[in-house]
Write a structure and sequence with these properties.
- Two copies of one chain form a homodimer.
- By secondary structure, chain A is α/β, with parallel strands linked by helices.
- Chain A has one domain: Alpha-Beta Barrel (TIM Barrel).
- In chain A, 49% of the residues lie in helices and 13% in strands.
- In chain A, helix 9 packs across helix 10.
- The longest helix of chain A has 25 residues.
- The radius of gyration of chain A is 19 Å and the shape is globular.
- Chain A starts with 8 loop residues before the first helix and ends with a helix.
- At the A-B interface, helix 10, helix 12 and helix 15 of A face helix 10, helix 12 and helix 15 of B.
Chain lengths: 354, 354
Amino acid sequence: MNFKVKNDTFLRALLRQPTEYTPLWMMRQAGRYLPEYRATRRTAGSFLGLCKNPDFATEVTLQPLDRFPLDAAILFSDILTVPDAMGLGLYFAEGEGPKFERPIVTEADVKALHVPDIGTDLKYVTDAVSQIRKALDGRVPLIGFSGSPWTLACYMVEGGGSDDYAKVKTMMYKNPKMMHSILEVTAQTVTAYLNAQIEAGAQAVMIFDSWGGALSHSAFHEFSLAYTQRIVEGLIKEKDGVRIPSIVFTKGGGLWIESIANSGCDAVGLDWTMDIGVARQKVGNKVALQGNLDPTVLFATPDVIRNEVEKVLSSYGYGSGHVFNLGHGISQHTDPENAAALVQAVHELSKKYH
Amino acid sequence: MNFKVKNDTFLRALLRQPTEYTPLWMMRQAGRYLPEYRATRRTAGSFLGLCKNPDFATEVTLQPLDRFPLDAAILFSDILTVPDAMGLGLYFAEGEGPKFERPIVTEADVKALHVPDIGTDLKYVTDAVSQIRKALDGRVPLIGFSGSPWTLACYMVEGGGSDDYAKVKTMMYKNPKMMHSILEVTAQTVTAYLNAQIEAGAQAVMIFDSWGGALSHSAFHEFSLAYTQRIVEGLIKEKDGVRIPSIVFTKGGGLWIESIANSGCDAVGLDWTMDIGVARQKVGNKVALQGNLDPTVLFATPDVIRNEVEKVLSSYGYGSGHVFNLGHGISQHTDPENAAALVQAVHELSKKYH
């Protein structure tokens, strides 16, 4: 394996080391907005068919990098591979999003939960990581990822997506012990899973707490951040003498940015609602920041995109510690030309801040 | 009309005057969780049938007050009566939520927008206000309300509800002038509408910015708060020698609480994500705060509800300026007994803080 990364701007920014420009990648950069992705997905037959086959996963992971000069690759996978490996039976009903055959309803369901054997049950993921890392051949770093225990538990208890999280929040309020048991096993699993990705070649890891923002202040700290923090503490910090930075992204988590920054992570991901300059004032000396353009800006024109990119860059201001990203995944309805305009704008306009 | 309010605790709390306990009401307190509401709705035939008939609107507005000792009544209506009166043609497709026959798509659609004649086109609302006020006979104050221009514009451009606000945000980024024109006419309409409600008897008014939280920091200030502020400035401040307080509620607006508090309103409504004690530290001397229990707490048991109520009360702390509420509308799946437990807990537990 090639240990040298030709473009390590992303890793340096995460560690708040000097860079020549602001690196960027886009959440969901390998996705349906790219015609080449849609073609591979057709060949694979399904979304899970892409995730579970390391050849396909490698192919789609590299597609956006072949099109745009992005500064990082992210493993193509899905956060729900984890509860699937924990025995819940993930499937995708056409046009309905992810579902579980065996959602967690009773105490017996919780007791039956187990930390899966990552090397067996999630081998297809670690195989994909190794294969992508090899295929990248040091072009840019590879990011591994997982959902946070709270976010995974939302799906595990709701049995799929939800608008109001009524089931999982009712369990949390009515039976906090049961909720904590689920989160405990899930946190152990996620820690092992991310460490397996690091062993397989991931050079940075990101924890997606997509539904942390649905919680109250105190519930967020008790049921989401406490477990994220435990994972961060259990991560492999260095591999082959190179630091492995961690990023924690809580959608809707701006109000709690100080506590998130104190979780031990190297960088905090921001959605688009918080001014990144305000965020930097609050936590700038502790962590790097990743974000935070509203993805709907990409529905506008290259001129508007450039203007909005400049707003984010100037709000962050001078110096390192900023990884540019969208505040949420890129929409499937985005014109790839506008994604190209974004990448160009970030690279060009950010030089003056370094 | 009876100008004396027997229980004016709510009004005093909004003005940060001393009270004996923390007053409360619940967003969507007249709603589907109440069997008596469902019965009236069946008689009326439809949701709009309730809104447009002052007798029915009066009946359902008073139902929760007959059941629970709440400290305020809120006009039963819908925020979308405003775009309907502006000519968009509101209808409810069964099981699909609100829709508009003529959403705003082109510049010509924007040009065709007009400030409706409130006294004619929205007479059914002001009639309902007068009738409710008379029926209340001074029991508790009556709250009038409207959606914020941004929130109304979301529906007007999307043509109904939306998950990602792609249409309205694309318009905002691509054609900000067009967006501002819509917001301008809507703000004029909302100002006239709220003032007509005050003239008809509303003793406090609330502006619901339900979708302000979907915006970036700068877009929120430019496209949402600027128009809310203009409305607040244009409101009748006093009627018959009595101050008419205003409340601004931005769902997901915790990050911007200081700017919202500077809009000129008397109180800021909070969803459940922000710690109300932190909110008070940020703005406590400027405005009252209304909120902010997670409505899913009401799916738990009376003991849990009591415990969570105490958390909110103790986080706010000693003194006046707090109106207890949920952080969002009460769910239709709530057991009315649990709503009763909430009301009792707030009244009992809050005494020690006054």
